[in-house]
């Protein structure tokens, strides 16, 4: 079942006119990619560019709320509620799910969600997990930047299809212990799943010798958030 679901395939976006750059932020070793998000947002605020953020709840950990101290997020303004409503065919106006924070519109994991009852257990339709990333890409097409903040692995449907839907995929590793897994994911995505080298961006601010030496041989490692935005922008 999973092998069929995640087979190499060309991703086709429903026909919509859009200008947004959709960038997935992902640490394949299971680390926290919200640290990178936190570094990118001030640069985009300074440039006065519009930003939307989607936190996919594959593991159910509300990392963005924890990092930015967002304890008072209404349950109706979360991706949890959007998933349930999408799953049951009861969608509300899309803007009602968005939580504004420092100039960005956010779809966050409910910060008061319980570890033993994540929203994924409440869904009834498997198709919901497969369709949601493309749906969100279309709904958020009017922004300059859309960040898909991921926390799952390739076997998690929303993580996989969010990677497919993204224009650029940032594989981030902050520590040397995360590097082997990150390089492995980069190679797998290119060789087995048809991602192009232009679509995949390797990012690390670490000065560890292992990371620096391998990056010189195998790919162009990005070490500055500003450079990541420059290389990641999709021309319209």
List keywords for this structure.
236 residues, 36% helix, disordered N terminus, eight-stranded mixed sheet, single chain, alpha/beta, Rossmann fold, 9 helices
Topology:
Blueprint: H1 2-5, E1 21-26, H2 34-46, E2 51-55, H3 63-68, H4 79-87, E3 99-101, E4 104-107, H5 126-139, E5 145-149, H6 157-165, E6 168-172, H7 179-191, E7 200-203, H8 209-218, E8 221-222, H9 225-232
Parallel strand pairs: 1-5, 1-6, 2-4, 2-5, 6-7, 7-8
Antiparallel strand pairs: 3-4
Describe this structure in words.
This protein has 236 residues and is an alpha/beta fold. The protein has one domain: P-loop containing nucleotide triphosphate hydrolases (Rossmann fold, 3-Layer(aba) Sandwich). It has nine helices and eight strands. Strands 3-4-2-5-1-6-7-8 form an eight-stranded mixed sheet, with helices on both faces. Helix 7 links the parallel strand 6 and strand 7. Helix 5 runs parallel beside helix 6. The longest helix is centred in the middle third of the chain and has 14 residues. The N terminus is likely disordered.
Give a brief description.
With about 240 residues, the chain is of the alpha/beta class. It contains 9 helices and 8 strands. Residues about 1-15 have low confidence and may be disordered.
CATH architecture: 3-Layer(aba) Sandwich
Mean pLDDT: 89
- The first-level CATH class name: Alpha Beta
The strand line-up of the biggest sheet is 3-4-2-5-1-6-7-8
Q: In which range does the helix fraction lie?
A: 25-40%
Counting DSSP H or I runs of 4 or more residues, the number of helices is 9
Unreliable segments of 5+ consecutive residues: 1-16
What is the count of distinct domains? 1
CATH superfamily: P-loop containing nucleotide triphosphate hydrolases
Overall form = globular
> What proportion strand?
5-15%
């Amino acid at each position: 079942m999973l092998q069929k679901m995640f087979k190499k395939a060309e991703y086709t976006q429903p026909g919509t006119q859009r200008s947004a750059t959709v960038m997935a932020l992902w640490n394949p070793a299971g680390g926290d990619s919200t640290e990178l998000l936190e570094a990118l947002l001030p640069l985009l605020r300074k440039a006065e560019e519009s930003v939307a953020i989607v936190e996919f709840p594959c593991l159910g950990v509300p990392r963005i709320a924890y990092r930015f101290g967002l304890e008072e997020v209404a349950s109706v303004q979360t991706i949890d509620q959007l998933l349930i409503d999408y799953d049951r065919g009861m969608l509300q106006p899309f803007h009602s799910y968005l939580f504004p924070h420092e100039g960005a519109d956010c779809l966050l994991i409910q910060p008061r969600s319980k570890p033993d009852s994540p929203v994924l257990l409440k869904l009834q339709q498997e198709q919901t997990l497969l369709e949601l990333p493309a749906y969100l890409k279309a709904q958020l097409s009017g922004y300059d930047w859309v960040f898909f903040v991921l926390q799952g692995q390739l076997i998690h449907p929303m993580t996989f299809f969010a990677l497919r839907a993204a224009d650029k995929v940032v594989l981030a590793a902050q520590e040397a212990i995360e590097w082997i897994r990150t390089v492995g994911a980069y190679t797998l995505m290119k060789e087995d799943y048809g991602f192009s080298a232009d679509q995949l961006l390797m990012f690390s601010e670490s000065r560890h010798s292992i990371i620096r030496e391998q990056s010189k041989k195998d790919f162009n490692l990005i070490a500055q958030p500003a450079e990541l935005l420059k290389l990641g922008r999709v021309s319209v």
